[in-house]
Write a structure and sequence with these properties.
By secondary structure, the chain is an all-alpha fold. The chain has 1 helix and no strands.
Length: 95
């Protein structure tokens, strides 16, 4: 077999390249960890948003009834002019 002889300059350049690759690999690992943390955080936020929307949908009608009853008793408006709580349109952001 042919032995490849490297001179000192070639060895130092090769070592420099290896060192740079190691640094790049460490940075990629750090970025990967950050991305995983962001994904976990986004998942938790999506779960929270879903909970809030479900709770709002459940409580919307009772809240409208209480509001309308209060307005009727206080004489501040009749039922036809009273604004109703808006419906929330769920926007699915999962892609």
């Amino acid at each position: 077999m042919n032995d490849i002889n490297y001179n000192t300059s070639d060895k130092s350049q090769l070592q420099l390249i290896i060192d740079k690759l190691d640094k790049i690999e460490k940075k990629i690992d750090e970025l990967d960890k950050k991305i995983n943390n962001c994904e976990e955080s986004c998942s938790k936020m999506n779960d929270h948003i879903d909970f809030i929307e479900e709770t709002y949908d459940t409580l919307r009608s009772p809240l409208n009834y209480v509001k309308d009853s209060f307005n009727y008793l206080a004489g501040t408006g009749n039922g036809s002019e009273s604004k109703q709580l808006p419906l929330i349109q769920h926007k699915n952001t999962n892609t």
